[in-house]
Design goal:
The chain is 45% helix and 17% strand. It contains 32 helices and 27 strands. It has a 7-stranded mixed β-sheet with strand order 13-23-24-25-21-26-27, with helices on both faces. Strands 3-4-2-1-5-6 form a 6-stranded mixed β-sheet, sandwiched between helices. Strands 11-10-7-8-9-12 form a 6-stranded mixed β-sheet, with helices on one face. This protein is involved in the repair of mismatches in DNA. It is possible that it carries out the mismatch recognition step. This protein has a weak ATPase activity.
Length: 881
């Protein structure tokens, strides 16, 4: 007869039941001061977190793996797990062990999952980059319709737009969401599109995407009968919004953050920039992967977290609305021209906390006293700006922002009176309500902190009342506080009228003990003072939290206004400090740049010792001018820098910034395409040349006549004639079909002949100077074509062995000679001894020291006078011959 399996303990039964509801997440099961994990969760978490894996009891005859982390340090572990692709279900104790025991000796503490931690639903400061958004996206396709919605629950922004599948990749590159919701079963359809962005996909049931139920869900959230009040949304857009709201209800367990009404973005409302172009231009991240060295890092002079996030949005999404662009430029110009006002305002903005994220945490009941203080401090700074800043004739954008800084006087007064200046992080720590705000709280604190003094005062009061100086108030664990006096005086206290006040409790051999109603009440107050003061503070925290949430809309508007002021002053400061100019932006096809510079390269040169950046002009305006420049010149001369700087100037102008140039006139650019640099994609079986062709194909298939295209070395990854043919055809297609403004860099000098064939193609070259067999890069872009590529000279600069450089010169000379004489291919190969290269001669070791070396050995520099040193120098020169 087999032994019976051990019964599952009540606690483990509870764990297994909760885990069954969250099979795809690691269950952080709260046990006292720790979160514990069991079974496979423990094994996975221990490996991911590099913590000890232990055992606890047995289940079905096998030992149960277990690991745990302290609950107060859980946020750091959440971040590690999220970055490694896990989701976390946070299971909390919903009652104390003492409350559980009231239901029975073996009763298990009630526990519930209060939150699912996923990449797109983070709100904690420690888990987020304060200067970047953290978007949760949802993609829905309904027959011929498709839509993308996205939300940042840490700030409350909610957006949606119709989209075509071909543009999904570009929009994801713009938003860089941390997580994207898709319909179950569609993972494989989207895998290739999102693989470049590294966006985690989260499948959700198709019911979450149904437009009918989604509209009810979203309307219910905003307490409206329909979504018509916010705009005309297509079915796919409603489905995407509904998926986000449903997912937030699931992960936040019903505690929906405060979201702003959905904003519908129009198709074509922003400059289209695909993932490859963003990567090549290093807009928000450098090619090395970090933020340093990117355009965003170089131009970021914001002083608030909200302003930094706004700058990131503007860099990622330059506007296609001329009115919007001009309005933003007017705001920058105002502070460019009013520098003292800008300086004063920036000092005030430096003291503005992150209002958006504090408000979000409070709405999710995940905030603390410091979030209340952040709201107070932010509103105080907003009020100070409106009272002290000297603004005259503000442009419309700043005028509207200024209005949103006002109207918080009552809430600000309440928070200012209620909170101490530096509150603790957690409400459970207490001590965040200011003294004098509430009499009961002050009394509880006084009893908690000054219990002995209170008792001493009562003792003095009773001594005076009875006339007995020997009367004492004492304490023991049996009676608590009591009044003690000698038997001699006890008779007085037990006689009227004192007997009505003093109640006899105990008589000992030499002492008699009394109490009073007042003393008993005071004893209870003193013993409970700590808990009572904390409960009073928790009550006020909730009251203040609700007061903030009632004003959530105006507070969010103030946060946006402060961010707008921050960004406008930051861009003005940038323009002043870097000598940038305001571009003339219009609806034409103009692209005229004078004295253009690359902002990132210029900053890097300054850090490396102050070498000046060589500015260059560019004119792709079309009409009587050329709309395509064919750029030739050697490597290292600056062709790629020139291409990139003009693309960045266009982007900066349309995001509403001044630009690094002495003058600029730019017609709105609808699309920005860049094919610069070389890389492979081995994981997807793509060579460098294949990646180049895929990106080039995307440009030729999408670019319109308002696009700006920069192409560098098309066709270099294959045979010479193949590459030349592809580059030739690509340039013709850009000119004849796409009709885009373009910069086309190439080493194929044969292509310069196209300037005579194509009306709007002009040749340009990066000038160099050859001196004594070496090439000097001038970094100047001029009209005309390069006579050669100077590749051998560049190779020499790179440090190739002299024998290799000399051999390369021989081969080059023979090739150029044969090309001029036009021999047959076989004759060329026969004439050119490509395989006759002999190894470089080995250096011959000298037989002994030279005459010069012998003389140097006899010299003692420290003992030489200047005249003697000069004489020796002459002697050395004579011996050298």
């Amino acid at each position: 007869m087999s032994a019976a399996k051990p019964a599952v303990t009540p606690m483990m039964a509870q764990y297994l039941e909760i885990k069954a509801d969250h099979p795809d997440a690691l269950l952080f099961y709260r046990m006292g001061d720790f979160y514990e994990m069991f079974f496979d969760d423990a094994v996975a978490a221990a490996e991911a977190l590099d913590i000890a894996l232990t055992k606890r009891g047995k289940h079905e005859g096998s030992e149960i793996p277990m690991c745990g982390v302290p609950h107060h340090a859980a946020e750091g572990y959440f971040l590690t797990l999220i970055r490694k692709g896990f989701r976390v279900a946070v299971c909390e104790q919903m009652e104390s062990p003492a409350e559980a025991k009231k239901r029975g000796y073996k009763a298990v503490v009630k526990r519930e999952v209060v939150r699912l931690v996923t990449p797109g639903t983070l709100t904690e400061d420690s888990l987020l980059d304060a200067r970047r958004h953290n978007f949760l996206a949802a993609y829905v396709q309904v027959r011929d319709e498709a839509a993308l919605a996205w939300v940042d629950i840490s700030t409350g922004s909610l957006h949606v737009m119709p989209i075509t599948p071909v543009r999904l990749g570009a929009e994801l590159a713009r938003l860089a969401p941390s997580e994207m919701l898709i319909a179950e079963g569609s993972e494989s359809d989207l895998a290739e599109t999102v693989s470049d962005m590294g966006v985690p996909l989260t499948p959700v049931s198709r019911g979450s995407l149904d437009s009918t139920s989604a509209e009810k869900r979203v309307s219910g959230l905003f307490k409206t009968n329909s979504l018509a009040a916010f705009g005309a949304f297509e079915r796919a857009e409603i489905g995407a919004l509904g998926a986000i709201v449903d997912y937030l209800e699931l992960t936040q367990k019903g505690k929906i953050p405060i979201l702003r009404p959905p904003q519908r973005e129009a198709v074509g409302g922003t400059m289209q920039i695909d993932a490859a172009t963003r990567r090549n231009l290093e807009l928000t991240h450098a090619l090395s992967g970090g933020k340093a060295g990117s355009l965003l890092s170089t131009i970021d002079r914001t002083v608030t977290a909200g302003g930094a996030r706004l700058l990131e949005r503007r860099v990622s999404s330059p506007s296609m609305s001329l009115d919007t662009v001009l309005g933003r430029l007017d705001a920058v110009t105002y502070f460019y021209e009013n520098r003292s006002a800008a300086t004063e305002l920036r000092e005030s903005l430096k003291r503005v906390p992150d209002l958006d994220r504090a408000l979000s945490r409070l709405s999710l009941d995940r905030g603390g006293p410091r979030d209340l203080a952040a709201v107070r401090n932010g509103l105080s700074q907003a009020e100070q700006i409106t009272e002290t800043a000297q603004f005259d004739a503000l442009p419309a954008l700043l005028r509207d922002a200024l209005k949103n800084l006002e109207g918080h006087a009552d809430l600000n007064d309440l928070l200012d009176q209620a909170l101490v200046s530096e509150p603790p992080l957690l409400a459970r720590d207490g001590g965040f309500i200011a003294p004098g705000f509430d009499e009961d709280l002050d009394e509880s604190r006084r009893l908690r902190d000054e219990g002995r003094g209170v008792i001493a005062a009562m003792q003095a009061q009773y001594s005076e009342q009875t006339g007995i100086q020997a009367l004492k108030i004492k304490h023991n664990n049996v009676l608590g506080y009591f009044i003690e006096t000698t038997a001699k005086h006890a008779e007085t206290m037990m006689s009227a009228p004192l007997s009505e006040t003093f109640i006899h409790r105990q008589t000992t051999a030499n002492q008699v003990r009394f109490t009073t109603v007042e003393l008993s009440e005071m004893e209870t107050k003193i013993l409970n003072a700590g808990n009572r003061s904390l409960e009073i503070e928790k009550g006020f925290f909730e009251t203040l939290r609700q007061a903030v949430l009632k004003n959530a809309g105006p507070i969010a508007a103030t946060a946006r206004a402060l961010a707008e002021f921050d960004l406008s002053t930051a861009l003005a400061d940038l323009a002043i400090g870097e000598n940038w100019t305001r571009a003339e932006v219009n609806n034409s096809r103009d692209f005229h740049i004078q004295g253009g510079r690359h902002p990132v390269v210029e900053a890097a040169l300054r850090q490396q010792g102050g070498q000046p950046f060589v500015a260059n002009d560019c004119d792709l305006s079309g009409g009587t001018e050329s709309s395509i420049w064919l750029l030739t010149g050697p490597n290292m001369a600056g062709k790629s820098t020139f291409l990139r700087q003009n693309a960045l100037i266009a982007l900066l102008a349309q995001m509403g910034s001044y630009v690094p140039a002495t003058q600029a006139r730019i017609g709105l650019v609808s699309q920005l395409f860049s094919r610069v640099g070389a890389s492979d994609d081995l994981a997807r079986g793509r060579s460098t040349f294949m990646v180049e062709m895929v990106e080039t194909a995307a440009i030729l298939n999408q670019a319109d006549d308002r696009a700006l295209v920069i192409l560098d070395e098309i066709g270099r990854g294959t045979a010479t004639y193949d590459g030349l043919s592809i580059a030739w055809a690509t340039l013709e297609h850009l000119h004849e079909v796409n009709q885009s403004r373009a910069l086309f860099a190439t080493h194929y000098h044969e292509m310069t002949a196209l300037s005579e064939k194509l009306d709007h193609v002009d040749n340009a070259t990066v000038a160099v100077k050859e001196w004594d067999g070496e090439v000097i890069f001038l970094h100047e872009v001029r009209k005309g074509a390069a006579d050669r590529s100077y590749g051998v000279q560049v190779a020499q600069l790179a440090g190739l062995p002299p024998a290799v450089v000399n051999r390369a010169r021989e081969v080059l000379d023979q090739l150029e000679k044969n090309e001029r004489e036009g021999p047959a291919q076989k004759a060329l190969i026969d004439d050119l001894p490509l395989f006759a290269a002999s190894p470089a001669p080995q250096p011959v070791a000298p037989s002994g020291p030279s005459e010069v070396e012998e003389l140097l050995d006899t010299i003692l520099p420290d003992e030489l006078s200047p005249r003697e040193a000069l004489q020796i120098l002459y002697e050395l020169k004579d011996k050298r011959g």
